[in-house]
Design the sequence.
């Protein structure tokens, strides 16, 4: 059997330049999201700040990623403005990589990470939305590939940084910390966006001569990222969108929400985050239309929150009782988890072509629950923790792209589903990490598994409710279409009679 049938391959050949461009900007997203954890101790030396101060850059990046995801919905649905936004954001990411070595205090570094986070959020929303708009009912396969490139970028970034990381204290003239302490701290802070909650026991000095080579890593990543804005620029040139016309404003004016789309697609509600959920927009839709947005966002809030929490705290759990793994061994768990997610998204490119989104989502969410329960049962087994981490990454990898494609298909690509789902996912990734971290700090490391398992059950329960509401929505929509058809026939009969 061929990997892709003629229809999918024909669609790809028709839109290959757009598709490869959106995939490349997600590589840029992944490249940016993964570098902070491994390099944070060298950045602490560069800024001569304490560990408590430097962890604020995690919050800065995550918070403004959420802001950027919301702002992505403010861009008008013209190809010109979407590509212009992607061009600016990918250029900003390269610029941030280039200037990070010049940030000599933690405030400047936090501002740079805020700019990067905002750019990442805008990329997240626009690339997902444009790909869904491009392929519509066939978007599931291409969305799986899109999210594979996040994982690819997240794998490349630490590999680039690793040769330039300090093995000992990078501040001379002070009592150096042992290399094992530095390795432990770096692994603790390597989760994507997670910061350790008990770092005061590792007093790293801030005064002295700073010796670090991490600047070379950032400059290399800036160069690696430069082909991405070049690809966006090439696409704009191919579509004859250069230069940007002042007659096509990229941000919606308040009175332009009802403006028509040049392509003829229905874009109602895309102008703002909750534009399609206002009373004026809901007049033409049933109440289930609104509920589907809420449930879809809640499911991704939970599942992306699980991903962020697991990546952020699996190392802390592994080095704590009863497992008490070595620092180096436990440090591999986060990399294995993200490698499994990347591999899973690659596999689901094919599976999303063969099976429907509801089947894939059911399989994935049930798999996540089973793995979490088994991890709780075999909580003393180091071997099973590695196996469970790998299987969990494979199972949860496809939830976001499958849920996005399924929700947009149910809602007939009419509204702001993409913006809402992306924003809810970013919110969950940030908020659940804070919640789980607080529980671990007060209740111990085992609470980490308990929190993730409870969240898995909640996510599956919300998905079952989503399927029920989807069934009601389809029935009501079909009934409305039949009623409209009946009214048209009745009007024609009356017209002909007169």
Sequence:
């Amino acid at each position: 059997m061929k990997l892709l049938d003629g229809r999918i391959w024909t669609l790809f050949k028709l839109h290959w330049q757009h598709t490869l461009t959106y995939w490349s900007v997600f590589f840029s997203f992944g490249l940016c999201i993964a570098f902070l954890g491994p390099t944070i101790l060298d950045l602490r030396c560069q800024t001569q700040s304490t560990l408590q101060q430097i962890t604020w850059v995690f919050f800065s990046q995550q918070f403004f990623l959420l802001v950027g995801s919301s702002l992505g919905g403010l861009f008008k649905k013209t190809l010109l403005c979407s590509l212009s936004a992607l061009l600016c954001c990918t250029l900003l990411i390269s610029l941030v990589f280039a200037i990070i070595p010049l940030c000599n205090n933690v405030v400047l570094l936090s501002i740079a990470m805020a700019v990067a986070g905002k750019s990442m959020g805008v990329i997240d929303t626009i690339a997902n939305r444009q790909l869904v708009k491009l392929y519509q009912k066939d978007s599931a396969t291409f969305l799986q590939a899109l999210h594979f490139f996040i994982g690819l970028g997240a794998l490349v970034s630490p590999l680039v940084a690793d040769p330039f990381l300090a093995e000992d204290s990078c501040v001379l003239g002070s009592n150096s910390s042992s290399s094992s302490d530095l390795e432990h701290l770096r692994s603790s802070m390597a989760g994507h966006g997670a910061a350790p909650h008990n770092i005061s026991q590792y007093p790293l000095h801030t005064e002295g001569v700073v010796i670090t080579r991490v600047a070379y890593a950032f400059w290399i990543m800036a160069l690696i990222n430069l082909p991405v804005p070049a690809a966006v620029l090439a696409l704009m040139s191919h579509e004859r969108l250069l230069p940007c016309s002042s007659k096509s404003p990229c941000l919606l004016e308040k009175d332009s929400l009802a403006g028509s789309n040049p392509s003829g697609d229905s874009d109602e509600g895309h102008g703002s985050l909750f534009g399609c959920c206002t009373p004026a927009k809901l007049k033409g839709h049933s109440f289930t239309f609104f509920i589907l947005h809420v449930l879809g966002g809640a499911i991704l809030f939970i599942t992306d929150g699980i991903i962020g929490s697991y990546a952020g705290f699996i190392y802390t759990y592994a080095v704590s009782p009863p497992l008490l793994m070595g620092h180096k061994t436990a440090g591999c768990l986060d990399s294995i988890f993200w490698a499994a997610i990347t591999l899973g998204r690659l596999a689901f490119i094919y599976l999303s072509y063969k099976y429907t989104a509801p089947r894939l989502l059911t399989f994935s969410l049930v798999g996540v629950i089973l793995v979490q329960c088994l991890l709780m049962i075999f909580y003393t087994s180091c071997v099973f923790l590695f196996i469970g981490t790998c299987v969990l990454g494979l199972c949860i990898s496809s939830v976001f792209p499958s849920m996005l494609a399924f929700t947009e298909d149910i809602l007939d690509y009419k509204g702001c589903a993409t913006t809402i789902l992306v924003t809810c996912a970013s919110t969950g990734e940030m908020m659940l990490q804070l919640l789980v971290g607080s529980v671990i700090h007060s209740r111990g490391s085992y609470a980490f598994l308990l929190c993730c398992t409870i969240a898995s059950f909640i996510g599956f329960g919300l998905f079952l409710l989503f399927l029920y509401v989807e069934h009601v929505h389809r029935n009501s929509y079909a009934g409305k279409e039949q009623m409209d058809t009946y009214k048209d026939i009745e009007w024609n009969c009356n017209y002909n009679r007169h």
Q: What stands out?
A: The CA atoms of residues 203 and 469 lie 54 Å apart.
